[in-house]
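Re: your question about Methylglyoxal synthase

S., sorry for the slow reply, the queue was backed up all week. Below is exactly what I fed in.
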Amino acid sequence: MSKLTVALVAHDHKKPELLAWVQQHIDTLRQCDLVATGTTGGLINSETGLTVTRYKSGPLGGDQQIGALIAENKLDALFFFWDPLNAAPHDPDVKALLRLCSVWNVPVACTPATADLVVTSPWFLSSEYKPIKPSF
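Result:
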């Protein structure tokens, strides 16, 4: 069984919330290949010891790099704790990333509550579940 590839992304004001969530679910996340935008990935690695493949910072193209993984069918889930109360200079990239998850039927969680439900689902680490990918 191949590991799930999971992306972890958080805006600056949401990084502590994502880090707390990762620590709560560290045993499950250890079983995944983790990718993240630059600053978030560095924080997760330094605070938890988890191995994280780091892409560029979100505003410098990291969101688009993760979007490319989605388009290439190389990402299984996205946990993106974005900050709805603070405008981000790369907001179009954020919207594009979330749009790609919908286009390619990739599970995405933007809040700790949704992330809890996704990661604790019996289907999350199961090799039996394969989401239907659209054919364009």
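The chain has six helices and five strands. The domain at 5-119 is CATH 3.40.50.1380 (Rossmann fold).

Happy to talk it through on Thursday.
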